[in-house]
Amino acid sequence: MGLNFNFENRSYSGKTFRPRPEIHADTEANLLLVATPWGQRSSARKAIDHILEYYVLAKSDREVTSPFERLTCLSTAANNLRTATLLANERLYREDNRTEYRSGVELFGASFVDDEFVWLQVGQPQILLSRAGERLMPLGGYVDLSFDLSDGKELLPALPNQLLGLDSTVNLTINSFRARPDDRILLMSHSAPPPALYGLGRADLTLEKISRVMAKDHPNLAFWVGLLDLVQAVPARPEVTTSGGIETPA
Predict the structure, then answer these.
(1) CA dist 173 to 20, 96, 110, 123, 127, Å?
(2) Backbone angle region of 66, left / alpha / beta, with phi > 0 → left and psi within -120 to 50 → alpha
(3) Which residues contact 9 (CB under 8 A, 6 or more apart)?
(4) Which end of the chain is more exposed for a tag (fewer CB within 10 A), N or C?
(5) What's the pTM value of the predicted model, to 2 decimals?
(6) Which residues pair with residue 54 across a beta bridge?
(7) b/e map 208-240, b = 16+ CB within 10 Å
(8) Residue 152 gets which letter from DSSP?
């Protein structure tokens, strides 16, 4: 029957800076994009628009051409998301960063086709899966430069390690898993998520509770949190016509 999703998010400012992401949540196309701009804020919106330009076309036309080789180890949906991201990287590099660094984008993208959850990331957010009856399971995450360069006593302000658009090539991560209705995906842009977070039960995985736990551990650090809930898609009711008082399929 397939999946649909609900998404909510929150930013926490603290005393340090972390840019607020641009979000594209399309329940019709079953696509979620979270683009965090570093530099010009417009770069995040441009990245989303460039990805959509190819992704929407490829979803409706299986014969659409691509300058990048399709990987046989990935599904059609995963290949489409990967190609769209590679094209967006090229465009951002040519338009913004060919001669000097002006802006880059951390990116999370997810698509849902039948029961396949495909996710892609460049940089943060961290990605964790909450499944009924199971503990939080990390799916993907990056060590950013804030964590890498800190001395262990106090975290430096947020500083990304991987960005879309800074180079003609990009180091992206893409993977998938078999999703179930009621799966919850926790997204976090934070340099060092607190250990207490991993002890939260399913009932406590709310934006309010997660924000409270993270703010208590590092009260001066800015962070962003998103919660993605997967739900069973409801099939559209077929249209009917009335003939002689009897409803029949159109």
Answers:
(1) 22, 23, 12, 9, 12
(2) beta
(3) 21, 23, 34, 187, 207, 224, 225, 226, 227
(4) C
(5) 0.90
(6) none
(7) eebbebbeeebeebbbbbbbbbbeebeeeeeee
(8) S
Q: How confident is the model at residue 236 (pLDDT cuts 50, 70, 90)?
A: low
Q: Answer yes or no: is pLDDT of 70 > 60.
A: yes
Instruction: Give CA separation, 53 vs 36, 83, 248, in Å.
Output: 19, 11, 39
The single residue listed with the structure tokens 């990304």 is: 160
The pLDDT of residue 40 is 92
Q: Residue-wise over 20-53: b if at least 16 C-beta within 10 A, else e?
A: ebbbbbeeeebbbbbbbbbbeeebbebbbebbbe
Res 7 pLDDT > 70: yes
> What residues contact residue 150 under an 8 Å CB cut-off, 6+ apart?
156, 191
pLDDT at 217 > cutoff 60: yes
